[in-house]
Amino acid sequence: MRATGDRPTADRLASDLAAVVGAGHVRVDDGALAAYARDATPLFSARPQAVVLPGSTEEVAAVLRYATEHGVPVVPRGAGSNLCAGTVPLEGGIVLVLTRLNKLLEISSEELLARAQTGVTTATLADAAAARGLLYAPDPGSRTVSTVGGNVATCAGGLRGLKYGVTRNYVLGLEAVLPTGEIIRTGGRLWKDVAGYDLTRLLTGSEGTLAVITEATVALLPAPAHSGTGVAYFDSLADASRAVAAVIAAGIVPATLEFLDRKCIAAVEEFARLGLRGDAGALLIFGDDGPPATVSGDLGRIQEVCERAGALEVTLAESVARADALLAARRCSLPALSRLGSLTILEDATVPRHRMAEMVDRVDGIAERYGLRIATFGHAGDGNLHPTCVLDPDDTDGAERAHKAFAEIFAAALALDGTITGEHGVGAAKLPYLTDRLGADQMALLRRIKRAFDPAGILNPGKLGS
Questions:
Q1: Which residues are registered as beta bridge partners of 229?
Q2: Are strands 373-379 and 256-261 parallel, antiparallel or unpaired?
Q3: Which segments of 78-133 are extended strands (E)?
Q4: 0.85 cut: is pTM over it?
Q5: Cα angle for residues 144, 212, 125 (degrees, 5° grid)
Q6: For the chain, percent helix, then strand, then coil, each to nearest 5?
Q7: CB atoms within 10 A of CB 342
Q8: Model confidence at 362, in pLDDT bands (50, 70, 90)?
């Protein structure tokens, strides 16, 4: 258990940390402490004692040694774009901001890999790979701001998850600093390496509770030669779900297979004016990439499957600009919904894809029972749904009702053989539901692993195995 009675005072903490990283990289002013008290998750906030921006792995190690010695909590943070309150400093202490570690160290066309420091944004890595004719496949919606380290720490997903997988499928090796200050390198540059426990996989998705990731080596793929996109409208999400199942059963694994429900369609069309059909109960955005003939053939087959499943209309994008507009419809779902109220709570849960329509029906029923406006969009190909609650400014107890509603939504996902989170992570927001997902014995194992890595309990306390 971490000692707290003899923690350094705020002044001493600032002085000691300045000796490690330089006074210009330690912030204790009210503005900084308020800004780093929260991340992108609504309703969660806790004020740190200090914000520290190290400039090297060695500085990270020195900060962690100091924190372990003095019992000061440390919360690693990248861009703070996560949606599970994973970087909220629940117990105060130090927010360790890693955005200065922003060097793209290497892209190897010969080995199909890249090395990047933890603070490099996902888009920077992906764009640099694309310039060399390569693809970095993980594609989180926050890619323009989220960092490589944050993506690894949360095992981020994205729109290409069905065909290409998620972040963990591309992490070959990590440089990480243990809470006691040791610097380790897990994995390496090889696709095949089974020497010892797979600590790379263990740290991927550990949400800053076991070690601080400072560098990642990730796999790249040859960039596909061509891509195409289409949209299919349906009377109901049940019809759309049957089409999704039929597409997969036909042996087609598209690069993109996304859905919006009726409420999302209306919000996106009002926001972006993309020409979406307002009379549809659901839409599917589908896309594929690869050789031109393969893409054309697969999109044509998806169109046929959707039409047989009762689609109101199926249209293939005739240009890159139209394809980008369709993908924008999916990517702008959250900002479109956010315009409708003063507070937007975006969650995620995942069910088997054939139960997706049933899950949305349950979400709608829960929303009606609690008097809430909840729209749902997400990744139809892998059953990952994003129920999004929009609250009116005069709804005084709306947040409390939303909290109860989402508890029922997570319970519904588990009852349908699903899970409480497919890509956002657990953090503080999902921690109350984690035992329901994993069971008491597995939670006890998580805590034993946590103690082995972090005997002083300083790293991101109040999350996962804490």
A1: 287
A2: antiparallel
A3: 94-97, 104-108, 113-117
A4: yes
A5: 25
A6: 40, 20, 40
A7: 12
A8: very high
- Tokens matching residue 212: 């601080």
- Which among 465, 399, 459, 389 has a CA at the least distance from the CA of 434? 465
AA letter at 238: A
Q: Read off φ and ψ for residue 129, nearest 5 degrees.
A: -65, -40
Per-residue model confidence as pLDDT tens digits over 138-182: 999 888 999 999 999 999 998 898 999 999 999 999 999 999 999
Q: Which residues of 392-428 are buried (b: 16+ CB within 10 A; e: fewer)?
A: eeebeebeebbeebbebbbbbbeebebbbbbbbbbbb
Residue 302: half-sphere exposure toward Cβ, Cα within 13 Å: 30
pLDDT bin (cut points 50, 70, 90) of residue 421 is very high
**Rounded to the nearest 10 degrees, what angle do helices 57-70 and 10-21 cross at?**
150
The two three-digit tokens of residue 82, written as one number: 């996560």
Q: Does residue 413 register a pLDDT over 80?
A: yes
| pLDDT bracket for residue 1 (50, 70, 90) | very low
Backbone angles phi, psi at 226, to 5 degrees: -155, 155
Q: Could you write out the DSSP letters of every residue in 37-78?
A: T--SSTT-----SEEE--SSHHHHHHHHHHHHHHT--EEEES
- Write out the H or E segment, with its range, that includes residue 183: strand 183-187
pLDDT digits (tens, 9 = 90+) for 376-389: 999 998 999 999 99
In 118-159, which ranges are continuous DSSP H helix?
122-131, 148-154
Q: How many CB atoms lie within 10 A of CB 11?
A: 9
The residues pairing with 374 across neighbouring beta strands, listed in sequence order, are 389
Instruction: Name which of 179, 182, 184 is nearest 200 in CA terms.
Output: 184
